[in-house]
Amino acid sequence: MKKFLSLFSLLILGVALVGCEDDHSSSEHEATEHEAAESVSENDMEDVIEYQIEATAPPEVEEVEIIEEEKAVEEVSEAKSDTVTIASYEAYTAERLAELSGSQPFALFFHAEWCHTCRSWESKVKEGLSALPANTVILKADFDTELDLRKEFKITSQSTAIFFGADGEEISRAADPALEVVAQHFE
């Protein structure tokens, strides 16, 4: 207990001296340090120095980092909840078609790169995605490479859209449909 009190006294004295350096002359400071050093053995002094180092380390650094990480997670969560879902116009894959069939309405558009009408329709859709209902999903199937798909749906010309209901059944078809027609299908 006596050793602890000596260590604690030296620590308090050290803190007081650091805080008052500007107020006292250097000779008073040196005399006080000398008196404190005489009252504590050399081993005790090493303990005090180690204790001072541990006691003066800024423990709030980890806490600040954790708080900043929590704030970042909250901001991301808020951003996700503020995210507006817009319609999607995406490349056809058999997996995506299977995923959509029976789960929600969607459209399948047969597109050819060489087709001016297809390129024009694609531009209109991309520009108007934000105006379409949020649940709008349009799959873009390549007219030239998806031959089995064309055969399955009996597609004879490019720029044809097929609209499907949530049950996966075909509802209607349209060649180069206006955005209003597309929107009506998803409302």
Q: What is the radius of gyration computed over CA atoms, rounded to a whole number of angstroms?
A: 37 Å
The CATH topology of the largest domain is given as: Glutaredoxin
Under the CATH scheme, the architecture of the largest domain is 3-Layer(aba) Sandwich
Strand order of the largest sheet: 1-3-2-4-5
CATH class of the largest domain: Alpha Beta
Choose one word for the global shape.
Answer: globular
Query: How many β-strand stretches?
Result: 5
What is the CATH homologous superfamily assignment of the largest domain?
Answer: Glutaredoxin
Number of separate helices: 8
- The assigned structural class equals alpha/beta
In sequence order, what are the helices and strands, one letter per element? HHHHEHEHEHEEH
In whole angstroms, how far apart are the ends?
A: 80 Å
Low-confidence stretches: 2-8, 20-34, 48-55
Could you report the average pLDDT, rounded to the nearest whole number?
73
Strand content range: 5-15%
Q: Largest sheet, described in full?
A: 5 strands, mixed
Number of domains: 2
Fraction of helical residues:
55-70%
Task: Give the structure's gist in a few sentences.
This protein has 187 residues and is of the alpha/beta class.
